[in-house]
Design brief:
This is OLC1v1026336C1. The protein is mainly α. The chain has helices spanning 8-16, 24-46, 50-70, 75-110, 116-129, 145-160, 171-176, 182-189, 194-202, 217-222, 224-241, 245-248, and strands spanning 134-135, 141-142.
Length: 257
């Protein structure tokens, strides 16, 4: 939610710019840990009561729109309406983020408690995953469950085959077909680029639950201009060494987050 604040990047940059001398992964972890109280304070300052703030900006926007309707040629009112609308959109995004977080918090508390909420969610998920009918090749809707089951079994049998016996691959057959030259082979083992890391990060939906450090993919996307160098170096360090931070640094009784 703090990412919706106009001061978000400024606060992140101020905290992030303080240097830390250590390995790339450890730098990233320590900077994230140092940033956490800063973002909490920003949330408390910018969005003290997001529900009430949502109502206030909505009323303010409605009032200015009514005034614009009464005086459609007043340019100053039109400018104020645009500003109020931008503010309304920003608060709406913050409110949506707040609702997502509350829903995830409630799910974390109730999902493993064998509660009625958990069983209701499981029933909904089961219903969503059920396939009750299909349209055949003759454009007819088939809803008989026996025919539906037979159709899907036949489909996957045609795709995967009915025998589990597989012949061993013959290397001579591969050599007779198109193969990669040495330049393309080197491309397969070259170092991962910042662009590839960014593309992989952007493929993660911003609404996905965060990891143990409480920083989700949405944070890295919003703060990418500031954190990209440290994130990229940490990922590259892991790909080169094959070791996570806890394998290199472990102190008895110390928590990283």
């Amino acid at each position: 939610m703090s990412s919706q604040s106009k001061d978000f990047l400024k606060e992140v940059k101020a905290s992030w710019s303080e240097p830390i001398k250590c390995t790339c992964m450890y730098q990233l972890v320590r900077k994230l840990k140092r940033l956490k109280p800063v973002l909490k304070q920003l949330n408390r300052h910018q969005f003290p009561d997001i529900q009430q703030q949502m109502q206030q900006v909505m009323v303010s926007l409605q009032q200015i729109q009514e005034r614009v309707g009464q005086n459609p040629t007043d340019e100053s009112l039109q400018k104020r309406e645009r500003e109020e609308y931008k503010n309304y959109i920003a608060v709406c995004k913050a409110h949506e983020s707040f609702i997502y977080q509350k829903a995830k918090e409630f799910w974390n508390k109730q999902s493993d408690s064998n509660s009625s909420f958990f069983h209701a969610k499981m029933r909904i998920r089961t219903m969503k995953n059920r396939i009750l009918s299909f349209v055949n090749t003759e454009e007819e809707l088939v809803s008989d469950w026996k025919l539906v089951a037979k159709h899907f079994v036949g489909f996957y049998q045609a795709q995967l085959g009915q025998t589990s016996v597989r012949e061993e691959a013959d290397p001579t057959v591969f050599n007779q077909g198109p193969i990669l030259d040495w330049k393309k082979q080197l491309l397969l083992v070259k170092q991962v680029s910042q662009k590839e890391i960014k593309r992989a990060l952007w493929d993660i939906h911003s609404c996905k639950s965060p990891g143990p450090d409480r920083f989700g993919s949405g944070f890295y996307k919003d703060a990418w201009a500031v954190v990209k160098e440290d994130v990229t170096k940490a990922v590259m360090e892991f790909l080169e060494t094959g070791e996570l931070l806890k394998q290199k640094y472990f102190v008895e009784g110390e928590r990283m987050f």
